[in-house]
């Protein structure tokens, strides 16, 4: 058969069996240090078998490309990377960070957002701290204090985002796991061993726990309370005693089919008296082979009869991590048709040709020789398959093949497709395929794409995806960073100088912004296969879910790592377009970009109509500000050009044309924080099967406390005693008089609480406040310790407004609506009265005399308006409290000039933090700092950008002898 061919561009070689029309849209842009990057329809092909491409086909492809690119231009993506000094912290420690905010398509500094939000959420997905950070030229840095009052022992998730990023879903939000530990002289070290056994047909877990004190001595004959929980559900409890070796054995049953993903043992010493003893959370970790999650994913997403298909697979153990597996593939007649064996972290591939009318299962061979079966995807009788093959690291092109089942070839409407290649949400490649043969192969030039994830999608003529595949292109154009120390090794308290030289991939010096952290290996565990700025931006940020050891895939540039990376991409979900949204009419983004901090809002009259031309004044004490403006025709106003500090609050006041604030209302656009999905990821506590470096960090911290105490002449560590004046709540209606209460929260506490509801504030800050059932009834009530609570707002007892409805908990719900309605911003003080001396006056005033003998608590709430429970603010005014803002602070760096500095006082785990390193025109910079007390090895991590699209990182070591 004669095949007509045409001369093609030298950049785009194609296979045979194709008559191709090719052209380049001259939309050039430099991206990631590429000389010329043909983006957005950079390589557009019209491909047909034996038929020349028509103008209509070219126009249709151009339309598809244009729609994709219009979508990108309307909703450009931002990418955010955060470097922190470490991931394990101690209470009252400081988290240091540097943020890099980029345009998602070329990694130049984002000009979209000028504010970035950081929040740290606990293991229950409750936000413990949220701060706002100003961003300039895509860069910012700062610190977050991990106060012991806020951060209890446990795992946390650091999230960082801009308001604009919220338009693209939770997958685009930067996430990092942290752990905060509490320490004291009673801290325990716990070694665990868990064994699953079958007993009377039930799954039983035999737990062996060994308890030592911080110095390694056995905890002997200690009575302990144990509870086994699955999330929030109690599975078992017991009281038992450690033996003469400090060991404790404890068995419990697991419900049928329960995994240990969320199971933990909570231990606490049996209290003597009223001691406040520490509680230890011990994750139960098992990897029972029968609980292996094994998934099979055909390349391209389709499993078509008669088409040879690559099947990727991924095995996840009970602990949520990849696990090595092997087994066989069987057809419905139990005939073996293929075998499989994982290559790295439970992932691998195999290839075979499914047959029509057949079904297939995988037989996983377990360690004991038994077999567990898993179904493979259902075989489709017809369909389209998409395969991507990289011939090798030195190859210039990818081989992309599209296979169409024979029955579809007979339907003209079913063999016309658009092949789209996306990178960084940009259409870099497009082809229109008219498939007149079962298989079509195209050579796609790698030069069409920047470094990173490439997402191929095959669309039908209705613009619906029929097959998808991701791959990775490595242009080897990251920045090259060299670190040179001024000496081979150092002494304690020695001056260390590091010379940096940074070039692009061609060796040309670059100017840029970089950050560097130096940590003590004896106290901080670093992971060379963990996340860094390069693999986060170019790799994992475009993939869904957790990627174990992401840097591993790029440690060596060889065929083995490339194959393991491709196995991952066969099995990992990716963050991609919602194609229906791409081709649908554009909608206004839900979340507006914030180029700078601003106070915005609206003024309305008593009929809720906007009031134009109204005088608006913004006042602030910190920073000191008085700014005037007028509302526009829509009643809107905006104040900008300044930054808040710490817990800034602003009073916004409106006055009508008569100079009064009556009959007008002011509303300010409040930041509405997102509610994120709980990660389900748990970090191992430092005291369980203790890592040496983490243990050293703890013991060094305790040594530092003891040394500080001795320097002060104390000889031993004293518990902190806080002495403060009695808190007086201004304008309080406290019936006992000023300051006479058992617990008090004043206006400073309200400022720190920020956007909390009143109920959240009471639950977090009032000791003993909780809700519980009245004994032997389904009726709920609020309590302080063991006493029922009544609420009074500005001297007004809210129960007098309650009308019974006959429903269970109607009074509880009535009270709760006020606690949910008010926020800390609406309140200036909370006073709790539960002692007889402080509650008796309230009893006599608001309740019947027969209740005198029963212990009852009252909470007096002083609102900012002073108008009682039904008005939160005065007319014409609005008190606006911003999120806490953090501005860069200087990292403490000791300077030693003498050798006899007291040993034991400088036991830093973070030796040095340098967030703003600027290289000169020669690509050079010098960083200096002093070593700490102990001989050790220090790890260096430097990351950053040339601010022109390229990023890089480098790890290094220095030795202190």
Explain this structure.
With 961 residues, the protein is mainly β. The protein contains 10 helices and 55 strands. Strands 43, 44, 45, 46, 47, 48 and 49 form a 7-stranded mixed sheet that branches. Strands 1-4-30-29-32-33 form a 6-stranded mixed sheet. A 6-stranded mixed sheet has the order 6-12-11-8-9-51, with no helix packed on it. The longest helix is centred in the first third of the chain and has 20 residues, at 55-74. The chain is globular and about 90 Å long. The termini are far apart. The model is unreliable at 1-53 and 709-724 (pLDDT under 50).
From the alpha-carbon coordinates, what is the Rg to the nearest angstrom?
A: 33 Å
Estimate the global geometry from the Cα principal axes: globular
Major sheet: 7 strands, mixed
Distance between the termini: 77 Å
What multimeric state do the chains show? single chain
Q: Helix count?
A: 10
Structure class: mainly beta
Instruction: Give the strand content.
Output: 35-45%
Mean pLDDT: 86
């Amino acid at each position: 058969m004669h095949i007509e061919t045409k001369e093609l561009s030298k950049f785009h070689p194609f296979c045979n069996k194709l008559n191709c029309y090719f052209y380049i849209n001259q939309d050039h842009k430099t991206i990631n240090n590429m000389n010329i990057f043909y983006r957005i329809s950079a390589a557009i092909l019209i491909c047909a078998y034996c038929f020349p491409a028509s103008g209509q086909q070219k126009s249709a492809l151009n339309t598809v490309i244009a729609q994709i690119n219009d979508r990108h231009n309307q909703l450009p993506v931002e990418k955010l990377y955060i470097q922190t000094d470490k991931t394990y912290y101690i209470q009252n420690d400081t988290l240091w960070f540097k943020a890099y905010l980029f345009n998602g398509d070329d990694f130049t500094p984002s000009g979209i957002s000028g504010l970035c939000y950081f929040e740290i959420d606990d293991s229950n997905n409750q936000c413990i701290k949220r701060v706002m950070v100003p961003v300039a030229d895509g860069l910012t840095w700062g610190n977050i204090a991990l106060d012991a009052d806020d951060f209890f022992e446990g795992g946390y998730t650091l999230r960082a985002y801009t308001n604009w990023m919220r338009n693209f879903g939770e997958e685009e939000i930067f996430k990092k796991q942290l752990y905060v530990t509490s320490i004291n002289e009673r801290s325990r070290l716990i070694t665990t061993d868990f064994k699953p056994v079958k007993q009377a047909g039930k799954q039983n877990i035999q737990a062996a726990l060994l308890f030592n004190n911080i110095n390694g001595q056995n905890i002997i004959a200690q009575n302990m309370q144990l509870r086994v929980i699955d999330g929030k559900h109690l599975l078992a409890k017991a009281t038992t005693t450690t033996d003469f070796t400090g060991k404790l054995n404890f068995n419990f049953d697991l419900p049928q089919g329960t995994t240990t993903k969320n199971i933990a043992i909570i231990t606490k010493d049996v209290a003597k008296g009223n001691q406040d003893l520490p509680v230890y959370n011990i994750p139960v970790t098992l990897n029972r082979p029968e609980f292996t999650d094994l998934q099979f994913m055909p390349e391209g997403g389709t499993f078509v009869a008669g088409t040879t298909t690559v099947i990727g697979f991924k095995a996840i153990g009970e602990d949520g991590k990849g696990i090595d597996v092997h087994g066989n593939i069987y057809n419905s007649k139990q005939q073996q048709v293929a075998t499989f064996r994982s290559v790295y972290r439970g992932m691998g591939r195999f290839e075979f040709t499914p047959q029509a009318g057949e079904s297939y299962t995988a037989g996983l061979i377990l360690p004991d020789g038994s077999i567990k079966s898993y179904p493979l995807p259902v075989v489709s009788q017809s369909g389209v398959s998409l395969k991507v093959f990289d011939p090798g690291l030195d190859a210039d092109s990818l081989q992309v093949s599209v296979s169409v089942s024979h029955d579809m070839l007979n339907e003209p409407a079913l063999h016309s497709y658009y092949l789209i290649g996306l990178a960084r949400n940009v259409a870099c490649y497009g082809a229109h395929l008219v498939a007149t043969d079962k298989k079509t192969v195209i050579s796609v030039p790698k030069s069409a794409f920047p470094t990173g994830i490439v997402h191929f999608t095959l669309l039908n003529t209705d613009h619906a995806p029929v097959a998808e595949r991701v791959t990775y292109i490595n242009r080897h154009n990251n920045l090259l960073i060299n670190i040179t120390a001024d000496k081979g090794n150092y002494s304690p308290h020695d001056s260390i100088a590091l010379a940096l030289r940074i070039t692009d991939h061609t060796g040309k010096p670059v100017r840029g912004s970089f950050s560097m952290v130096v940590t003590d290996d004896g106290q901080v565990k670093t992971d060379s296969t963990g996340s860094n700025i390069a693999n986060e931006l170019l790799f994992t940020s475009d993939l869904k879910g957790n990627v174990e050891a992401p840097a591993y895939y790029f440690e060596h540039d060889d065929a083995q790592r490339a194959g393991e990376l491709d196995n991952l991409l066969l099995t990992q979900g990716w963050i991609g377009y919602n194609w229906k949204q791409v081709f649908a009419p554009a909608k206004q983004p839900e979340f507006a970009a914030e180029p700078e901090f601003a106070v915005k809002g609206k003024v309305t009259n008593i009929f809720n109509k906007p009031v134009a031309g109204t005088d608006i004044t913004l006042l602030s004490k910190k920073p000191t500000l008085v700014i005037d403006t007028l509302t526009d025709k829509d009643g809107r106003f905006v104040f900008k050009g300044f930054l808040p500090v710490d817990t800034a609050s602003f009073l916004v006041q409106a006055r009508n044309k008569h100079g009064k604030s009556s009959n007008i209302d002011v509303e300010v656009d409040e930041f509405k924080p997102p509610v994120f999905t709980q990660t389900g990821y748990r970090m191992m506590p430092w005291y369980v099967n203790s890592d040496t470096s983490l243990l050293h960090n703890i013991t060094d911290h305790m040594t530092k406390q003891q040394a500080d105490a001795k320097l002060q002449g104390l000889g031993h560590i004293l518990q902190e005693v806080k002495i403060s004046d009695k808190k007086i709540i201004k304008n309080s209606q406290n019936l006992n008089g000023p300051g006479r209460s058992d617990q008090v929260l004043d206006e400073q506490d309200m400022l720190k609480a920020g956007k909390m509801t009143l109920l959240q504030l009471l639950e977090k800050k009032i000791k003993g406040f909780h809700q519980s059932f009245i004994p032997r009834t389904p009726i709920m009530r609020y309590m302080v310790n063991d006493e029922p609570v009544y609420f009074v707002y500005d001297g007004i007892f809210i129960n007098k407004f309650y009308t019974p409805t006959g429903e269970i908990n109607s009074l509880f719900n009535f009270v709760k609506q006020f606690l949910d309605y008010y926020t800390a911003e609406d309140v200036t003080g909370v006073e709790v009265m539960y002692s007889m001396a402080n509650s008796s006056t309230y009893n006599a005033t608001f309740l019947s005399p027969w209740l005198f003998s029963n212990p009852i608590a009252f909470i007096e709430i002083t609102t900012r308006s002073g108008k009682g429970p039904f008005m939160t603010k005065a007319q014409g005014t609005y008190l606006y409290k911003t999120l806490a803002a953090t501005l860069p602070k200087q990292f403490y760096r000791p300077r030693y000039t003498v050798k006899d500095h007291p040993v034991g006082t400088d036991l830093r785990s973070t030796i040095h933090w340098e967030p703003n390193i600027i290289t000169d025109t020669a690509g050079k910079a010098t960083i200096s700092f002093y070593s700490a007390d102990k001989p050790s090895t220090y790890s260096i991590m430097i990351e950053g950008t040339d601010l022109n699209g390229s990023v890089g990182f480098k790890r290094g070591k220095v030795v202190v002898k």
